[in-house]
Write a structure and sequence with these properties.
about 350 residues, alpha+beta, 3 domains, 3-stranded antiparallel sheet, about 20% strand
């Protein structure tokens, strides 16, 4: 009688397989490949199922990983959620399906810049201060051609590295993610391709995972809502001599995990605030928006850190002056309310 060899149980997938619609044709072996190989960074079954449903609706092969599961901060939910965004390959597939895509030129890169990025991130349950030096191209552009009335027409959208790179550790850290450190040219090239494809095919192409990494779901999120250490008007007015680095305008940023209170910096000479009329209107509007959000949520410390990281020179002086006035006005209103209650 032949001896039977015991069969070892199959390895279990990293994430247990949920009950799914039979129309998706998902088998346990397929699910294991999706969890362990196709989307190894996904943390939930819901995130992977979103990718499967997206590909099924768009008639894409999920095994070729045309989309990515991207964690994004949801201000409404107050937590990180997993979302699905197309990769650059999916955008190119969509453009090709139109029959109007006439190819693209090789990427063109701007001059190489070198900058040391600093920030504080939370690792292994504790906050760590890091500094990373990266050499990156200042900008990249890729020309995409679309057939218009039978003629190839060029579409070019330059993308700047400092405006596109994904940040590690939240809104108040300027540290790039590991991928943007390892592939500063490659990641920027993907964003430049996506931008030009979107310009050429606005009805078909959308934003990609490379562009959305590190962003927030709500477009109007400017500063975090967590309350930090209170500032006095004098502390809010403290300024430092700006370092000679490229300036990025204030922009919507994801909410980080709450940081431990930072020590107040020693006071330095404070220059008089500039005339608001001399500032760039768009920059002034962004600063005013950050100050208004700080007043709504009493997030004075976070707003100060955010403005210091995004402004310099006259813009920084105006921003800190506006923040100090808003804080003084809030304190006056609070004192008045307490006196009336008494």
């Amino acid at each position: 009688m032949a001896r039977k060899t015991p069969v070892a149980p199959a390895d279990q997938p990293r994430i247990p397989m949920p009950a799914v619609d039979a129309a998706l044709n998902l088998t346990p072996s397929t699910w294991k490949v999706l969890t362990d190989s196709i989307f190894p960074s996904a943390k939930t079954a819901e995130g992977i199922l979103l990718a499967v449903h997206y590909c099924a609706a768009r008639n894409l092969d999920v095994m070729k990983r045309p989309v990515h599961v991207v964690p994004m901060w949801s201000k409404a939910l107050g937590q990180e959620v997993e979302t699905v965004w197309p990769g650059i390959a999916e955008v190119q597939i969509t453009a090709a399906r139109t029959g109007l895509w006439a190819g693209m030129d090789p990427p063109r890169f701007g001059p190489i810049c070198e900058r040391t990025f600093t920030g504080r991130i939370k690792r292994d349950g504790s906050w760590q201060d890091l500094a990373i030096t990266v050499a990156f191209p200042e900008w990249c552009e890729v020309t995409v051609y679309r057939l218009v009335n039978g003629q190839p027409c060029p579409f070019t959208e330059p993308v700047f590295w400092l405006e596109a790179y994904a940040r590690l550790g939240g809104a108040y850290s300027e540290l790039p993610t590991d991928m943007w450190v390892k592939r500063p040219r490659g990641q920027l090239m993907k964003c430049a391709k996506a931008a030009s494809l979107r310009a050429a095919f606005p009805e078909e192409a959308g934003y990609t995972a490379e562009e959305m990494e590190g962003k927030v779901i709500e477009a109007d999120a400017a500063i975090p809502v967590e309350r930090g250490p209170e500032l006095t008007p004098a502390a809010a007015m403290q300024t430092r001599a700006p370092e000679p680095t490229a300036r990025a305008e204030p922009q919507d940023a994801p909410e980080p995990e709450p940081e431990p209170a930072a020590q107040t910096e020693p006071a330095t000479a404070t220059p008089p605030p500039p005339d608001p009329a001399t500032l760039d209107p768009s920059m002034r509007a962004r600063i005013d928006k950050v100050v208004a959000r700080a007043a709504e949520n009493a997030a004075w410390k976070q707003a100060e850190q955010y403005l210091r990281a995004r402004c310099d020179g006259a813009d920084l002086a105006y921003a800190l002056d506006a923040l100090a006035k808003a804080l003084a006005n809030a304190e006056t209103q609070t004192n008045a309310a307490q006196q009336q209650a008494a």
